[in-house]
Amino acid sequence: MKTTQTIAIIGATGNMGSALAKSLSKGNYRLLLCANDLDKARAVAEDIRKNNPAAAAEATDCSVEASWEADMIIVAVPYAAEKEVARRIREVANQKIVISIANPLNDTYNGLVTAPDTSAAEELQQLLPNSRVIKAFNTTFAADFATPVIDGKQVDAFIAGNDADALQVVSELVSTAGFHPIEAGELTVSRTLERMQLLLIQLNSKYNYNWRAGWKILHQ
Questions:
Q1: Which of 9, 14, 129, 136 is most enclosed, with most CB atoms within 10 A?
Q2: How many Cβ atoms from other residues are within 10 Å of residue 129's Cβ?
Q3: How distant, in Å, are the alpha carbons of 59, 103, 191 from that of 52?
Q4: What is the DSSP pairing of strand 156-161 with strand 132-135?
């Protein structure tokens, strides 16, 4: 029997954090929903249990304790907040998989605030040198988690990282969330993935996709 893994979702009450929590609650995971507002975290946990009574979801307001207890950590906070989260969890995230979902967008959504030769994920890896940072879920909108099949096609979700075992574990997470995982390459590929989502956000605004759009690689 497969061992239940514990996942800490830091920022679990945000749009992406709560969408991730609800999707991953379908899998064999114990979820620690971490947020500054404990009441909101409890509300997310209650909503999960209401729709899935068998789900294991607990609310917490301490990212350090949640990360210490977890096997995996999802940093579901805006790019600007990642540095502070990394500072708090650095010691307890040692050797653990840490998932970066952030896109370092500027205020007008016409560019990124990171330098061309780096990415939010690579910066997080520098801040957490003893963790296994994986880029995932940044190319999907929060609304896609409720409908990961669009126009009859399963949305692709790209992941990148330097650790093969961690990539496999995160691929399983992506599948549980309802998306088709594609291993795009090493962590440096995050630079492309973050720009891909910038483009999708710009296209959403231009063509009014109503935040229900995603990437799909068509091939034979």
A1: 9
A2: 9
A3: 16, 30, 36
A4: antiparallel
pLDDT tens, position by position, 170-220: 999 999 999 999 999 999 999 999 999 999 999 999 999 999 999 999 999
The neighbouring-strand residues paired with 161 are: 134
Q: Are 177 and 146 in contact (CB under 8 A)?
A: no
Judge contact between 61 and 35, C-beta under 8 A.
yes
Burial class (CB in 10 A: 0-12, 13-18, 19+), 177: buried
Query: Where in the chain are the domains?
Result: 5-207
DSSP class of residue 105?
A: B
Helical spans, DSSP H, in the chain: 15-24, 38-51, 63-69, 79-89, 120-127, 164-176, 190-207
Tell the CATH superfamily of the 5-207 domain.
NAD(P)-binding Rossmann-like Domain (3.40.50.720)
Q: CB of 137 within 8 A of CB of 100?
A: no
65, 11, 64: which is closest to 40 by C-alpha? Answer: 11
What six digits make up the tokens of 27?
């899998």
Contact 93, 99 (CB under 8 A): no
- Rounded to two decimals, what is the model's pTM? 0.96
Q: What is the token pair recorded at 17?
A: 């954090």
Strands 132-135 and 180-185: unpaired
Distance CA 57, CA 35 (A): 13
